[in-house]
Amino acid sequence: MTLSRRTFLTGLALSGASVSALAQSAPEPQMVPVELVEDTLNLPSAVRLGHAHGDAIMIEYFDYNCPWCKRSAQDLPALLKAEPELTYVLINFAVLSPQSVAATKAALAYFQLYGPERYLPLHLALFNLHGTVDGERALNEAERLGGDRKQLMEIADAKKTTQWMTDAFRIGSALGLVATPSFLIGTDAYIGGMRLAQKRDAIARARG
Question: Does pTM surpass 0.85?
Answer without folding.
Answer: yes
